[in-house]
Amino acid sequence: MIKLIVSDMDGTIVKSNLEIPEEIVSIFQSLIEKGIACGIATGRSFHSIRNTFKEIADDMIIISENGAMVYYKGKVLKTTTFTKEIAKEINEVTKKSDGVIAFSGVKKGYVFNGNDDVMHIMEHHFPDLECVNSFEDIDDEFLEISVYFKNQNAGDSIDLFEPLREHVNAVSSGSDWIDINVKGLNKGEGIKILQQKLGINKEECMAFGDNLNDIELLQSVGESYAVANAHEQVKEIAKHIIGANNEESVLNELKKLYSL
Fold first, then answer.
1. How high is the mean pLDDT of the chain?
2. How far apart (Å, rounded) are the C-alpha atoms in residues 193 and 156?
3. Rounded to an integer, what is the distance from CA 45 to the centroid of its chain?
4. Less packed terminus of the chain by CB within 10 Å, N or C?
5. Beta pairing class for 69-72 and 109-112
6. What is the arithmetic mean of pLDDT over 5-11?
7. CA nearest 214: which of 71, 40, 45, 42?
């Protein structure tokens, strides 16, 4: 019997035009009423997910920033943050690319001034975004650092962060984003915290994903689903393949499985 269900957001629930199906809130609400712990496991910021699911946020699971924050039923179970020194090194590496860096803090998101041409993208992922001039203007701790590539060459630039591999994980979360987290952190580790907290095992969990930052998530559950548009490596490890994100396949699968 499944007792926990989580899904990735971008590329899995979210459509290619960045539309979030409105029905996801009512479906999650119905699952919660059935006694199933459910929610989101994403590279997005905690504040972004709380804003999207504000009606049910305090009843659901939020694994945000690729596992840097784990939240359930109104309580933060764990946070993992960077040191400022490592964050500065990541920023220096990013300067060697055409990427735009964003910092997901415990309080809000931050981007450096001068990135006006990509602010509409940044604001979509960081609803409480603050533009700053330097690190000295930030009084916060960093959960995740993301680099946006407006020319969609994220995969070509990921090797830039190889010199920092002892301290960080850098993984593609789409054609135009690289997510950077503290070494060893991933969505799967977030699921394991919840499994221990709730006293449930791997076989009692279900997850949906599409990209490389979902691999550990899908490996940590008994019923793993990849959408049709998923990265081939994700499809290879998933137990089930369903339709594409643009077809609202996660929602349709949940409605079918639970007669919603």
1. 92
2. 33
3. 7
4. N
5. unpaired
6. 96
7. 42
> Per residue in 137-189, pLDDT tens?
899 999 999 898 887 677 788 888 999 989 998 988 777 888 899 998 999 99
pLDDT tens digits along 34-50: 999 999 999 888 988 99
Report the phi/psi class of residue 113: left, alpha or beta, with left for phi > 0 and alpha for psi in -120 to 50.
Answer: beta
Dihedral sign for Cα atoms in the order 86, 133, 140, 116:
negative
Would you say how long the chain is, in residues? 260
The token pair at 254 is: 């949940």
> Which amino acid belongs to residue 133?
N
Residue 35: its pLDDT value, please?
A: 96
Instruction: Please name which of 48, 22, 223 lies closest in space to residue 129, comparing C-alpha atoms.
Output: 48
Work out the average pLDDT over 203-232: 97
Q: Provide the token pair at 193.
A: 């915290």
Q: Are 90 and 145 in contact (CB under 8 A)?
A: yes
